[in-house]
Amino acid sequence: MDRLQKVIANSGYCSRRHAETLMEKGKVQVNGVTITTLGTKVGKKDTIVVEGQPITTVEPVYYVLYKPEGCVSTTDDEKGRKTVLDLVPINERIYPVGRLDYDTSGVLLLTNDGEFNHKMTHPKSGIEKEYVAHVEGFVRKETSRKLERGIKLDGHKTRRARIQRVTYHKESESTTLHIILTEGKNRQVRRMFDTVGHPVTKLRRVRFGCVTVEGMAKGEVRHLRPHELKTLLHLARPRT
Ligand code: URA
Description:
Layout: E1 2-3, H1 4-10, H2 16-24, E2 28-30, E3 33-34, E4 41-42, E5 48-50, E6 53-55, E7 62-67, E8 95-96, E9 104-111, H3 114-121, E10 129-136, H4 141-149, E11 152-153, E12 156-157, E13 162-169, E14 174-181, H5 188-195, E15 200-208, E16 221-223, H6 226-235
Parallel strand pairs: 9-15
Antiparallel strand pairs: 1-4, 2-3, 2-5, 5-6, 7-9, 7-16, 8-9, 10-14, 10-15, 11-12, 13-14
Helix pairs in contact: 1-2
């Protein structure tokens, strides 16, 4: 038996918090009876309906994909481009946790657990995402410091970041560096470097929290290891 809001979140319908709101609003029925008590427990045989839609209870699953460039990280694409799900030989209904651009490669988590997805992508989670960026021009120390302190994107200052392992390439007049963010605004790394005049030419996410794709080939998928799941949930605890 599990708490009703957890079962709804695990189904991928919405986050646990939102499930609680829906319960309080009387939008959840179990075996035809409206349930508003948040602690209510349900089992596998119970029929759950949320906002008129039957919920299928599923075991939560968690995967890591080494996303290659040249695919979108949505479950379907209006332009008909290849999606990350085309690469994953898995029958379960899963979806990506957050996004990586079409041209960005690297660590991408996939799950069917709505609550986990919410925790990992919530701006307050503070989970570190580490990228290796190859950018045009030589990134000066002052520019790195400015990016680390935060710059304005869409009228909001980006959170503190860390830039490490800076390597200059004389012949191609370019720089490779690691940038560690704790948020995930749309195309954030590319837009940050665009703003300071160093367009990104290649971008790879090498770490999501404690998870890397070390030893994996591009396009390969594996189960998230139990200790990785535990650590991610610990890392995503809301900070006060
Ligand atoms: N920042 C970007 O610019 N692109 C990504 O895919 C991820 C972070």
